[in-house]
């Protein structure tokens, strides 16, 4: 799903770029369309070219972010999150730019036709309003980006939680059918998913299937998401899981009960203390 989301993101930007570049067939006609804002004049061809540069910058930043995400060391750096957000802010600002230009042009026409200011005063007033509108567009782009990433983070948490509930139900069904070793295997899977959910709550990006359980476990300990008793019990469940998976060892009902009850307790405790 994550890969598909990124693919859709690139497709959207490239689609915009392709559409704008297609206007190059009408370059001469576009250069004839001049936009006069009083203090700054440009052609429609110039504007479209700047949009292409902007979208190109977005793609470049997204590529840096994606490459960095593949590195376990770089993935935890907050600067990578800022790079992704900066690319999105630029994207939103570009999308808003036609509205911004329309407002600026409307202001220019109003100042030019309905005020008795001198040419210099009109240019100054228009430039001031343009600056205010530009800042406002930047603020809107930033707020939109913040809201989008909050929604994205919440959606990711909900997705992980649904997977966690599903796997826990599977573990309980296996337990009720007396498949105790298989129940422990499923319970361990729930434990891994839950640790990912705890890390995700801390705004830590965990790409799917990139980290082993040992790495996730160490990460959770480092961030003090687990206490000393948790660590001891989790290590015991991990050993049971390994013996069931690699040695086909049969485990007892008592061992399966301990595993499932602990994980249910851990989910309840950490969810009560840390859910947003």
Give a quick rundown of the structure.
This protein is mainly alpha-helical and 276 residues long.
Q: Which short descriptors sum up this protein?
A:
276 residues; mainly alpha; 82% helix; elongated; disordered N terminus
Task: Set out the fold topology.
Layout: H1 2-22, H2 27-32, E1 34-36, E2 41-43, H3 44-69, H4 72-75, H5 78-114, H6 119-176, H7 180-201, H8 213-222, H9 228-246, H10 253-274
Antiparallel strand pairs: 1-2
Helix pairs in contact: 1-3, 3-5, 5-6, 6-7, 6-10, 7-8, 7-9, 7-10, 9-10
What does this structure look like?
The protein has 276 residues and is mostly helical. It folds into 2 domains: 141 residues, no CATH class; 97 residues. It is built from 10 helices and 2 strands. A two-stranded antiparallel ribbon has the order 1-2. The longest helix has 58 residues. The chain is elongated. The two termini are 24 Å apart. The relative contact order is 0.08. The N terminus is likely disordered.
Rg, alpha carbons: 28 Å
Number of helices: 10
Major sheet summary line: 2 strands, antiparallel
How much strand content do the residues show?
under 5%
**Residues in helices, as a percent range:** over 70%
Instruction: Work out the count of structural domains.
Output: 2
> Which strand order do you get reading across the main beta sheet?
1-2
Q: How many DSSP E strands?
A: 2
Average pLDDT, all residues: 83
Structural class call reads mainly alpha
């Amino acid at each position: 799903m994550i890969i598909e989301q990124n693919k859709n993101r690139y497709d959207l930007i490239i689609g915009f770029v392709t559409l704008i570049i297609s206007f190059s067939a009408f370059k001469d006609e576009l250069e004839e369309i001049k936009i006069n804002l009083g203090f700054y004049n440009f052609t429609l061809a110039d504007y479209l070219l700047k949009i292409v540069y902007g979208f190109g910058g977005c793609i470049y930043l997204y590529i840096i972010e994606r490459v960095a995400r593949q590195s376990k060391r770089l993935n935890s750096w907050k600067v990578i999150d800022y790079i992704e957000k900066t690319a999105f802010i630029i994207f939103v600002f570009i999308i808003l730019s036609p509205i911004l230009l329309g407002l600026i042009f409307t202001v220019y026409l109003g100042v030019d036709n309905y005020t008795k200011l001198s040419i210099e005063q009109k240019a100054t007033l228009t430039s001031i309003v343009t600056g205010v509108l530009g800042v406002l567009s930047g603020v809107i782009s930033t707020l939109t980006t913040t809201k989008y990433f909050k929604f994205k983070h919440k959606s990711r948490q909900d997705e992980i939680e649904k997977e966690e509930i599903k796997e826990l139900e599977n573990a309980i069904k296996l337990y009720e059918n007396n498949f105790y070793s298989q129940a422990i295997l499923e319970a361990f899977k729930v434990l891994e998913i839950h640790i990912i959910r705890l890390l995700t709550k801390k705004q830590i990006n965990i790409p799917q299937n990139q980290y082993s359980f040992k790495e996730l476990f160490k990460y959770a300990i480092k961030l003090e998401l687990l206490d000393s008793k948790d660590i001891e019990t989790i290590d015991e469940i991990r050993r049971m899981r390994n013996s069931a998976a690699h040695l086909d060892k049969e485990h007892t009902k008592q061992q399966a009960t301990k595993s499932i009850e602990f994980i249910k307790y851990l989910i309840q405790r950490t969810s009560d203390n840390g859910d947003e």
